[in-house]
Structure formats: structure tokens, C-alpha cells
Amino acid sequence: MNSEVSGRPRVIDNVAALRAWLGACRGSGRSLGLVPTMGALHEGHLSLVRASRARCDATAVTIFVNPTQFGPHEDLTRYPRTLEADLDALAEVRADVVFTPPVELMYPAGFSTYVEPPEVARPWEGVCRPTHFRGVATVVLKLFQLLPADVAFFGQKDFQQCLVVRRMVRDLNVPIEIQVCPIVREPDGLAMSSRNRYLSPAERQQALALSRGLRVAGELVERDQREAAEILARVRGELRAAGIERIDYVALANPDTLAEVERVAPSAVLLLAAYVGSTRLIDNCLLGECLLGDGSPLDEPRE
Q1: N or C: which end of the chain has fewer CB within 10 A?
Q2: What is the pLDDT of residues 188-244, one digit of tens each?
Q3: Vertex 127, ends 273 and 230: CA angle to 5°?
Q4: Do 204 and 174 belong to one domain?
Q5: How far apart are CA 112 and CA 124, in angstroms?
Q6: Is 45 a catalytic residue?
Q7: What distance in Å separates the CA atoms of residue 186 and residue 171, rounded to the nearest whole number?
Q8: What region, left, alpha or beta, does residue 302 occupy, with left being phi > 0 and alpha being psi -120 to 50 degrees?
Q9: Beta strand pairing status for 151-155 and 177-181?
Q10: Full-model pTM
Q11: Within 10 A of 26 (CB to CB), how many other CB atoms are there?
């Protein structure tokens, strides 16, 4: 569909057209924001586009389901692909361009060059998904090469991924600023995720235990509980009370290194990964933000 008629952003799927658009953008002196996604967009993604539009003159969104960040038994083949709906949503937030590269552009025949991710990739997700961050670091660096933006926008829901990207940019002297934007939650507290659509109605209710666990942790810290073991036990109890038994990790960590802590400060990060049914969900919060005043996304829902 013609974007000029539909109001949709321009869709580009090849390097020549992308470079032409970038040349025009740079030639007119416009700053560029980049929002990398795997599609199946929700309000969390759209909040990143809004953040980019607030800071930059032009905004490019990438939609690419990256095969190298999926493990051999993960959900690559069934990961939702909803390009038409995504373009309609991006029209509403006025993205300028959507780059939708085919797999063979990103990984041509004989591809064998990968980015070794930084140390911060090793714990937590790195243990559960050993090749995941190598795929993330590789595809993000390739996107930064193809779309050399001024600022790239990522969501805090993928807390460890944000640290990995920031360290990679620092270590490799990539001239792009990384801006991390807050988690966007449903009114009942569930962190928005493309994988939420896999949940049955009953599983959707079970999944609320993740944000309840974060809230419990915040309450404990507010009452001056500083023993990580006690906080972690209570959060795990919240998950198990909801029937969530398959827990990859519940961790309290330093927010810069992700090293596990025994005594916590409000700056510590609480990280969760667990399966609700067959769907793996993650969530997190900085402890000082797990329990906020009126209007907090982790407040109990109000009538």
C-alpha cells in the first residue's frame, strides 16, 4: 500500500533504498532516532517511537525477527509476524521509515562473523540462553552499521539486553547514544510483551504473579528488609502460589554488573524469568521503583 495514501511510514527492504533515504535525511541536517524491533508491536514499542520523535527529527523503526538470537528449541518459527498491523500502529505514532530486511540481507550465504558479547551477558539470560546475546549483539551492530542513528531507543523490560548493547557500543566505540525507556505495563501490571499473545485467559491471570512479585519486593525494601535471600524467597513464593513452577531465575543484582548481591540497596535490580504454561516471560524493576506512589504501573489496579 502506498504510504502517501495510507499515512503509513515508508517501508524499505534493501540497502540501496535505505542509503538513499539516509543520504536525504543527513543532507537536510536532520537528527535520526532508531527503534530496533522484531515486530508484533505493542504499546511498549510505540512508546519508544514516541521517545524518538520527541528527541530526533526523523525516526526509523526496524522489524526483523533475528534467527541468531533464538535457541534450537525456542519459538522462532511461531514468533508472531504481524507486519500489516505493525505498519498501521506505526502510522499512528508517525514513524518515518520502517526497515524490513530479509534474512538473506542480514545473514548472506556463508555468514560466519559474530560479535562476542561483553561480560555482562554471562549471568542470568546468558546461562539460560547461551547463544542469545551473541545473536543480539551481532544483529544490533549490523543494524547500527546500516542505520547509523544519533540515538537508539530500547525498553527496560529487556534490562540485561540494554546493558549488553550499552557495553558493546562503549567497547567498540560505536557513535550512537543508547536511551533506555521505562517498561510499559497493562493496567493490571503485566509487562507488555509480544509473547503475551501466546497466553490463554487462565495463563494471563497466572502471569500477573510476576508483577506482584516485584511489588512484594518493593514493599519489603520499603520496610527496610535488606537480606536478599528473604526477598527472593518471598518473590518465588508469590510465583509458586500462582502455580508457576518453572522458574529460570529470580535474582537480585548490581544494576551495572548484574553480579548477585546478598544485601540490597534501592538501586539493586530484581530480575525474573519464568514460564507460564509454555510461554517464557521476563520482568524486572529497580528496587527503588518497585513500589511507587499514585500512578505507578506497579500500583494495585484501581476501579
Answers
A1: C
A2: 999 999 999 999 999 999 999 999 999 999 999 999 999 999 999 999 999 999 999
A3: 50
A4: no
A5: 26
A6: yes
A7: 36
A8: beta
A9: parallel
A10: 0.94
A11: 13
The DSSP 8-state label assigned to residue 191 in this structure reads B
Nearest to 155 by CA among 184, 134, 118: 184
Q: Which of 129, 35, 40, 130 is nearest to 78 (CA)?
A: 40
Residue 24 lies in a domain: yes
Q: Are residues 23 and 50 in the same domain?
A: yes
Q: Read off the C-alpha cell for 97.
A: 521509515
Confidence tier at 289 by pLDDT (50, 70, 90):
confident
Average pLDDT over residues 53-59: 98
Domain containing residue 85: CATH number: 3.40.50.620
Other beta carbons within 10 Å of 170:
11
Other CB atoms within 10 A of residue 211 CB: 23
Give the amino acid at 231: I
User: Would you state the cell numbers that stand for residue 207, as one nine-digit string?
Assistant: 502471569
Active-site pick, 42, 45, 73, 132:
45
- pLDDT, one tens digit per residue, over 232-275 is 999 999 999 999 999 999 999 999 999 999 999 889 999 999 99
54 contact partners, CB below 8 Å, separation of at least 6: none
Are residues 141 and 227 both part of a single domain?
no
Q: SS3 of 83, please?
A: helix
Measure CA 62 to chain center: 13
Q: What H or E segment, with its residue span, contains residue 280?
A: strand 279-286
Contact 103, 79 (CB under 8 A): no
Residue 207 lies in a domain: yes
